[in-house]
Write a structure and sequence with these properties.
Quinone Oxidoreductase, Chain A, domain 1, about 25% strand, 8 helices, alpha+beta, globular, five-stranded antiparallel beta sheet, Rossmann fold, three-stranded parallel beta sheet
Length: about 240
């Protein structure tokens, strides 16, 4: 069987790259997995060979000991990869597809998912609505800062890039579609940014810059980004944000 390697949380301030089990189309017992989620079959899922994975600010909350994350948890909820195994019940995803994985896990079938509230899907975490990969109290799904990872509900979850070669060429940009850019876009969209808006973004970190660019895409006539960190403001300037203060 193919080996796997992953970033494993070992306690506050301590992570290690370790050998871990190769993923299966079933959620086995492990750190943070609720008892009623153990041995959950996922024939609707796929196994990915991870191409890129990002470190989120949310990961740092766990690593710095701000949460109750269990030792042994495999981190990582921002995943882009290639499909190498397809479950029996998957219809539209095929081997060889290069895909982006949304950070929140959702079934696509429950009332919450059907009303576009996928962040509080009721079918993926028996302890509370909502789930994510490699995150504390989010269903125990194994994270994607690894060589291989299992993704459930693949037909609903995965965004397939139609041009494989072009996707691989642009992969360092496309990796932002898992979490960073959608978070910024969602903020701008739900704030009502539209053609002609004047927008102020408080903070020039990665999500702030994503929100600024999203505001421009939504038609804002002026986008102002503020931050106390001069280096981040400079990054906003070179990223073509119109005004940074």
């Amino acid at each position: 069987m193919t080996n796997n390697r992953a970033v494993v949380y070992k306690g506050a301030g301590h992570v290690e790259v370790q050998d871990t089990p190769y993923p299966e189309l079933v959620l086995r017992d492990g750190p943070g997995v609720p008892k009623s989620n153990v041995d959950r079959k996922c024939e609707h899922g796929v196994i990915l060979k991870v191409i890129t994975t990002n470190i989120c600010g949310s990961d740092q909350h766990m690593v710095r000991g701000r949460t109750t994350a269990p030792e042994g948890l495999v981190l990582g909820h921002e995943i882009t990869g290639e499909v190498i195994e397809v479950g029996r019940d998957v219809e539209f995803i095929k081997k060889g597809d290069v895909v982006s994985v949304p950070f929140n896990i959702a079934c696509g079938r429950c009332v919450m998912c059907q009303t576009q509230k996928t962040h509080i899907c009721t079918n993926v975490n028996p302890e509370r609505p909502g789930a994510a990969y490699g995150y504390v109290d989010m269903g125990g799904w194994v994270g994607g800062q690894s060589e291989y990872v299992m993704v459930p509900y693949a037909d609903f979850q995965l965004l397939v890039f139609p041009d494989r070669d072009l996707a691989l060429e642009k992969i360092m940009d496309l990796t932002m579609l898992t979490d960073i850019f959608p978070t910024g876009f969602h903020g701008a969209y739900t704030a009502g940014v539209k053609m002609g808006s004047t927008v102020y973004i408080a903070g020039a970190g990665p999500v702030g810059l994503a929100a600024a660019h999203s505001a421009q895409l939504l038609g804002a006539s002026a986008v102002i980004v503020g931050d106390l960190n001069a280096e981040r403001l400079q990054q906003a300037r070179v990223s073509d944000v119109k005004q940074s203060t």
